[in-house]
Amino acid sequence: MLFKSFVISALIAAAAAAEQGVQKPAQDPEFGPDTVHGCYSSKGTMKAAGTSNFQSQGECATTCRKLGKPVGASQMDQCWCGDAYPPKSSLTKDSACGEPCPGFGTDACGGLNAWTVYNIGIRKQVADDPDPSTSSSKAPESTSTNAPAAATSSAAPSATASEESDSGNKTNTVGIAVGVVVGLLVVCAIGGGAFFFYRRKRNAEIEEEHRRNAAVNAFIAGGKPPSSSGGLSLSDQRLDPVMAQRRMSDGSIADNEDYSRRILRVTNA
């Protein structure tokens, strides 16, 4: 009885060990749960989304779902996410994906140069990446067809650069011309102001000199110098009228004599 139980336990353990890392067959995509799409020898255009010591199909599907990517792929402890399945030409046999997931051994997480690809359930219809061999065969036609356009596009920047250079030169020329004109106007304004200031100053000096000469002449002639307020008499009222009419050549007036009245002299007859 004991031996029988031991055999049954061994068979169960062997069966469990045999199920570790077995790639599930491809399933039709469903909206909601993640479904296996197949084992591929290429990850296509999918990008690495991180690594985890507890990597599994469900763990990677959750990561891609957060990123909004409809396709996920696991390889050992790495997770990959993308918007399209790998190229159909890279679809390989399921036995190539026999690496148990570190977080859930019954799931297969790819293998050596192999990826377990699945639809994570946010979109049922997902496109496949184009086959590289097909793309490379069409590349020469595309290159030859687009060659004139490329030449035209390369010529366009040159023409644009030339136009921008001409525009820049014209702008610089106009700026220099405007600066020269403004400078000349400033110099002329300064020169004109200096000329009028000097002329006005000179006229004022001439008028002042003329006024002084008129005052001196009026004083010598015994008259009144012109002024706005009528002025003051420059003749001394104390002077003898007779003496005031004498010319400067007839004699001079003594400073210590009072000529305001006639001088009476007493003599012995």
TrEMBL record:
Residues 133-162 have a biased composition (Low complexity). Residues 33-121 form the WSC domain. Its main location: membrane. Residues 126-170 are annotated as: Disordered. The chain crosses the membrane at residues 174-198. It is found in: Membrane. It is a single-pass membrane protein. InterPro entries: Immunoregulatory_rcpt-like, WSC_carb-bd. Keywords: Membrane, Signal, Transmembrane, Transmembrane helix. PROSITE patterns: WSC (PS51212). Residues 1-17 form the signal peptide. PANTHER family: AXIAL BUDDING PATTERN PROTEIN 2-RELATED (PTHR15549:SF26), PAIRED IMMUNOGLOBULIN-LIKE TYPE 2 RECEPTOR (PTHR15549). This is WSC domain-containing protein. It comes from Apiospora hydei. The lineage of its organism: Eukaryota, Fungi, Dikarya, Ascomycota, Pezizomycotina.
